[in-house]
């Protein structure tokens, strides 16, 4: 496996022994957290659930006073916070199995449903399995470009990508719908690589889940507000829009800013545990911010730690971050982090740059970390 990234002093060679030593250190960190899970983690997630429900009640209540703009705006703000918490700090993390150890049905990853049009079982497949197993591997991780964007230089350019910024804006505004359609692989269907008959079950699940969400947000609650039907409907739509923009921004900042690496199937074949860890560290990025910012991001502002330990409760990522950063420094690996304005600016800069033909723009600077692999040899004959 050859993994490349930038260093100040030129190429750095990371030996196979270094990689496996790093892997053992990260395994040790994970085991230490698992052994320490208990009351404070239980109290944390229940405090977030309590806050989420409180914001939802407040938001829907304030929308009943929607004839007065300040109340409508406050209702949208509260409902937006509720949806963000539900999707990011609760839904995303619960469905990763981060609280399965509590053995409580309401927090069980296999049965949990979130306030989102995407069925949780389909999300667990496209995200938990495909993305986290094959992170940033071309041809395997469909989060690279989401089937519509050119987000990496190794994606072959086509005139279609001139619309890259437009597609990105559309995906941002309709992000929950993009996530719902992700598992269908619509681009592969249109290219004849997959048949519609293969996705009938997925379509039925999406119809049921999206139907319930649309009914709840755009019919039931607006009807309950009587003469305020239109303002309540608009408030619910606005809250969903805010949640979509926020989720898109946090997720893209964790996966696509400058310095994040992608890989080929060939160079990641027969990966060791240590090599998998290194790929996660080079294939993701963090966002610095306050404690409140981290909560509102579902702690996906600690995307590096999340990719290393996706099934550990996300409230533990802030305490793991300095330890992971220390390991990166020890082994000469980059620790990609920065404020939201820097990371989001980098992402949008890449979206616009990669819309253009490669000959028109300058590529990223040459990488410089080489991870050496140990190869098993097999005798033939004799």
TrEMBL record:
<dbReference type="InterPro" id="IPR012171">
    <property type="entry name" value="Fatty_acid_desaturase"/>
</dbReference>
<dbReference type="Pfam" id="PF00487">
    <property type="entry name" value="FA_desaturase"/>
</dbReference>
<dbReference type="GO" id="GO:0006629">
    <property type="term" value="P:lipid metabolic process"/>
</dbReference>
<dbReference type="GO" id="GO:0016717">
    <property type="term" value="F:oxidoreductase activity, acting on paired donors, with oxidation of a pair of donors resulting in the reduction of molecular oxygen to two molecules of water"/>
</dbReference>
<dbReference type="InterPro" id="IPR005804">
    <property type="entry name" value="FA_desaturase_dom"/>
</dbReference>
<protein>
    <submittedName>
        <fullName>Acyl-CoA desaturase</fullName>
    </submittedName>
</protein>
<feature type="domain" description="Fatty acid desaturase">
    <location>
        <begin position="71"/>
        <end position="337"/>
    </location>
</feature>
<dbReference type="GO" id="GO:0016020">
    <property type="term" value="C:membrane"/>
</dbReference>
